[in-house]
Amino acid sequence: MDAIKATAESWMTDFFDLETKEEVKNLIENNPEELKERFYKNLEFGTGGMRGVMGVGTNRINKYTLGKNTQGLSNYLKKTYPGQDLKVVIAYDCRHNSDTLSKTVADIFAANGIQVYLFSKLRTTPELSFAVRHLGCHAGIVLTASHNPPEYNGYKVYWEDGGQIVPPQDGEIIAEINSLSFEDIQFNANPELIHLIDTEVDEAFFEASVKNGNFNAAGKDDFKIVFTSLHGTSITAIPEVLKRAGYSNVTVIEEQAVPDGSFPTVESPNPEEPEALSIAIKKAEEIGADMVVGTDPDSDRLGIAVRNLEGQMELLNGNQTMVLMTKFLLDQHKEKGFKGNEFIATTIVSTPMMEQMAKAYGIEFKTALTGFKWIGKMIKDFPDSYFIGGGEESFGYMVGDFVRDKDAVTSTLLACEIASDAKAKGSSFYEELIKCYVRFGFYKENLVSLTKKGISGAEEIKQMLKDFKENPVESVQGSKVVWIEDYNTSIAKNAQTGEEKPIDLPKSNVLIYETEDGTRIAARPSGTEPKVKFYISTNAKLENEADFKSVNSQLDTKIQGILAELNL
What we know:
Elements lengths: L1 H8 L8 H13 L1 H8 L5 E2 L2 E5 L9 H18 L6 E6 L5 H14 L3 E5 L5 H10 L4 E5 L8 E8 L9 H10 L15 E4 L1 H15 L11 E4 L9 H7 L5 E3 L25 H10 L3 E5 L6 E6 L5 E3 L2 H19 L5 E6 L5 H9 L2 E5 L3 H10 L4 E7 L3 E4 L8 H17 L4 H12 L1 E10 L2 H17 L4 E2 L2 E8 L4 E4 L5 E3 L8 E5 L4 E6 L5 E10 L7 H18 L3
Parallel strand pairs: 3-4, 3-5, 4-7, 8-9, 8-10, 13-14, 13-15
Antiparallel strand pairs: 1-2, 2-6, 5-6, 10-11, 11-12, 15-16, 17-24, 18-19, 19-20, 19-22, 20-21, 22-23, 23-24
């Protein structure tokens, strides 16, 4: 505790503003537990950049922690590109303080002699990724905490390829940041180096989104969409992109259309949560809409609800939308003729159905660690290969490579194209998904997410994962475990023969069990929230569409049995 107090006291020098010093003084004198939470560690980069609760302290998002990041990044840019006219682009979302923090970040870059292109108002994360290459920048920053609760904010770093930073570069940048003291931050900007941007980049991004997501689907005039931005940034892009692609029957949920970092109409601004789309689904039932689309605050994730076989709106999961989007794109490319260098991609905790599809179409399949930065890295690492599309179970998808991160804007358009075309041909999005199950195998997934906040929560998560590894699962619902994949050691071991195979991916705190019948159970800590996540994937053969309900019920029962076995 003495070390924590000493760290806190270092924030009471003249370098820090009066408000900060007074708050630290109050914490030291009156709230030792809160002081400990705020100063016991430095915020770290996770799978989606740096995220944390806003407030004073080294373990909080504030102008000093983000300032130190930006100063370190400025130094790194100068070392990496000596003598060049450095340029960065900055965007921010709807969260509290995102606008002021983005201006602070811009000031620090400008104080270091770096040209800054700062969006004049909030914009989506996919547009920021696009803007990096469009403007020829060396790096990009977006101030966002994605779908985290209102008290959070964050800082995502993109490189000149438009993708997020990855090893070893992220480690080098972090080392540069850690070598600094807060007093090294240069806050005094050269205002001539800061350029506000808006419609020019918007126009280019909208045009690229329509080009990549529009396939001239039939039936657009008869296709009804309900859209909600959940108080986030997608209101600046998705309605316009849908309009340009020919969709005129779009109902926007007005009470959720105003950007608001408090997210007043939802418990969580996360389209993975059914509650988040409840207002939109209710509206869809009222007006007889065909599809509901909702996006998270920075518009990189999308949730989709469509009518099921009973005609009721049903929220699909990220694996389901990913599978059908990929199948549709594969069909489009197959029609033109594969060139032999195409690939699709997903992550190690997403549905194995993606690999089965790749085999069926005779194209390459690549798998990555959790986090879209790894899929972006694939595109950079294999310049002679052509990325068709890919996604992850956590409601993210990327169409082509003009954006190098998950992109709810273009993905929303693609989903509407699939559903509109299906409806015009007497089918539906849901029925097309069932056809995929018949063709490639019926894979059904389930995610259990347990929140564990604070210092004790971090220890609890660590212990749960340790127990999961040290007390190996031997069988799941009567099916023996065959492979244990330990991404911490980069070794996959056959539990029955003892055979070991190397895992050719960077080390990560993930453990996966796979049984004889193809059931997969994965566990990992979240890289962006105080959560531990368990991913379950089951599968069965679906002989025909008529058997869907019964096989679906069987898989549901199996998943419930697995949850009971694992005490989840």
